[in-house]
Design brief:
three-stranded mixed sheet, single chain, alpha/beta
Length: about 500
Amino acid sequence: MVSLTTKTIAELRNGFRGGEFTAREIAEAFNAAVAGARGLNAFTVETPDDALAAADAADAARGKSELGALAGIPLGIKDLFATQGVDTTAGSNILKGFKPPYESTVSGNLRRAGVGMLGKLNMDEFAMGSSNETSAYGPVISPWKRNDGGNAALTPGGSSGGSAAAVAAGIVPGATGTDTGGSIRQPAAFTGICGIKPTYGRCSRWGIVSFASSLDQAGSMARTVRDCAILLEAMAGFDPKDSTSLDLPVPQWGANLSSDLKGKRVGIPTEYRIDGVPADIDALWDQGVEWLRDAGAEPVKISLPHTQYALPTYYIIAPAEASSNLARYDGVRYGLREDGEGGLDGMYAATRAAGFGAEVKRRIMIGTYVLSAGFYDAYFTKAQKVRTLIKRDFAAAFEACDLILTPTAPSAAFGLGEKTDPLAMYLNDVFAVPASLAGLPAMSVPGGLDGQGLPLGLHLIGRELDEQGVLNAAFAIEERAGFTARPEKWW
């Protein structure tokens, strides 16, 4: 019999409902896979009993009207989502041991759909990183290896590195991720899976540990476009507890998937042709254009002139918001507390010094600086104005096209410890950040392998609220790319 862990979410759902196997059999198979892959360091907490309890409930409800849309499906949940009674640490020492008395809206939506939780997935501390090396739990290791025979450990990308590695390794059928400046899409590209960031506001941010409030957005990560659509449907929806939540019905993205792109125009931005990008990535981009043309779309050249300012704009706005959001971690109400000399102020300083890692401290310092008197207008206000110009660029481009196609990342996965310069690390987000600043839906879909046998992703950006258009174009690429490569098990 084919292993249950090789099946997609759609196949598992159909097989469970059709009586081919039970939900408990699914949960047991994935629990065993998680336990057998600890060498990847993808999980911060494993919750096998949770997965089994949800499976037993699904088996009892099978054939009844109360069966949830995702009954029988166990998932991995990124450690940024509050999970009631289960450690939620955002990959940080300052929150170690914190067990929320509440559930995030997104994970709560999934639970109501019948999902069981296999565990909490490792991530860059407070979602700040592109390689999963800033986690207080240590780096996640990609299940992929270069084909040159070397044993160098590779990054799965970040910040949703645990989610990406777990899906790619087949130890979870799907996972939640969050994307502030590419943290779903870049790791999806690095590990050969699919990942979508919906329009800002589609998924509630309530109960998600905040990094940058005007940018953070939950999304889905899975092996196929259809699975991403299925998960996103269950995750999304209006939430009155989140002032940025969109009060709109959730479309049936999975049922409406179509690879027919006749009449669609796909924009190819000239500014995304940058120096230093490997030839493999440019070649895949060109191939992606031809795949979309074959699906009926018309490629058109477009310009996004302020793209060159997107990365510096992001690295002013995001740290500024992080500086404000992370001020709540002071050792008083929850999480770590360290005694320090000098009374209350000393306790604050000692707690934050011990609890935060180097990258988080770096971004807090940058953010505090750009928000300080004398620099607010020179940096933060100017960055917000440039952000508006970037949004206007997209609005103008979408008058000439329906979708935009770019590479997802400027390289394939790199080795752990390979990028020690923070600026070099930040450049990993160069293709992903503009869509985040504009709040647009965007998705990475695997297109092929580079010369070292590592996955490369293609990146689709859509109009606001046009997740369906993004998913359809990704579906067209998925059909034509025929990407079936999977890492060989070594862990």
